[in-house]
Each structure stands twice: as structure tokens, then as C-alpha cells.
Design brief:
It comes from Sphingomonas quercus. Pfam families: MarR_2. This is MarR family transcriptional regulator. With 162 residues, the chain is mainly alpha-helical. It is built from six helices and three strands, in the order ααβααββαα. It has a three-stranded antiparallel beta sheet with strand order 1-3-2.
């Protein structure tokens, strides 16, 4: 695959070689595999797992903070949180710093679930990365960080493709 440069404007788009498309396909496949494992074993969808994981890492947060950290929209976070509250895995309490909002935190049952799911998540990640060297994984993670930063910069600048 050729990388675009200023003098390669004649380059043709081949979807199978288009990196944003490949990232989307890989993300979909990985998410589907993880979703199936989490749903079957723990009764969690991906949005619910992300809410549990971010609260386990950070402690109580407002829904808007969970949405920002997970890059999920507010409605998805709200639905996931409501389902987790119904299962008594999450506690929703008034925010003492802002009475108009609520803080979400893991209940004891939610903490116990996280303690069970986290090692399973790490094993699944290892299965996905089997066959990759440590250097390949480190390079891939570094590339993901650079792509995320570049995409965020494009969004923040409001740039349109030229």
C-alpha cells in the first residue's frame, strides 16, 4: 500500500487498503469477540463493561465524565448505567458538588464482578495478541496513540479532508 503524499493525488482509494476502514473492521471484530465472551460469561454488554472498568479505575464519576473517558455518547452511558443499577452492580447517588447531577460508583457486587472480569479481559487480550512479539505490540500501541492524537487534532481543528 502506498502512503499519500502531496504529489500522489492520483492515488485510487482501495477500501481493503484504506487504514480507517481496516481499523473499523478490526475494531468491530475484536468488539464482537469480546462482547460475546462478556455477555455469555458475565451478562455484560460492551458499554456496561466499559462503565464498570472506568469506575473501577477512577472511583465515582458523573455520567458525562464516564462518557468522555470511554468515548461513548451520553445516552449509551445512561442506558448502561441504568442496567447496572438494576443489577445492583452500580450505585447512583446525588453529587454533593452539584445537586443537579449524580455520581456513579461500583457497589460491592460491582467491585466483585470487576475483580472476576478484569483477569478474563487480560486473558482475552493475550489471546488476541498471541503470535505478536513484544516489540510488535509496543509498536502497535504507540501507533494507536499517534493515530488517536492525530484524529483528535483533526476533530478539534474542524478540518475537512482536502
Amino acid at each position: 500500500m502506498q502512503r499519500a503524499t502531496d504529489d500522489q493525488d492520483e492515488r485510487q482509494l482501495i477500501l481493503a487498503d484504506f487504514i480507517p476502514y481496516r481499523l473499523s473492521i478490526a475494531t468491530h471484530l475484536v468488539s464482537h469477540a469480546i462482547a460475546r465472551a462478556y455477555e455469555t460469561r458475565f451478562g455484560l454488554g460492551i458499554p456496561q463493561w466499559r462503565v464498570v472498568a472506568v469506575l473501577a479505575e477512577s472511583g465515582p464519576l458523573m455520567s458525562i465524565d464516564v462518557a468522555q473517558r470511554t468515548r461513548m455518547d451520553k445516552m449509551t452511558v445512561s442506558r448502561a448505567a441504568a442496567a447496572l443499577v438494576d443489577r445492583r452492580l452500580l450505585v447512583r447517588e446525588a453529587n454533593p458538588g452539584d445537586r443537579r447531577s449524580h455520581l456513579l460508583s461500583l457497589s460491592r457486587e460491582g467491585e466483585d464482578l470487576y475483580a472476576e472480569v478484569a483477569p478474563a479481559a487480560l486473558r482475552l487480550e493475550q489471546q488476541l495478541l498471541d503470535g505478536c512479539s513484544d516489540d510488535e505490540v509496543a509498536g502497535f500501541v504507540a501507533m494507536l496513540h499517534r493515530l488517536e492524537q492525530a484524529a483528535a487534532a483533526l476533530i478539534n481543528a474542524g478540518l475537512e479532508p482536502v
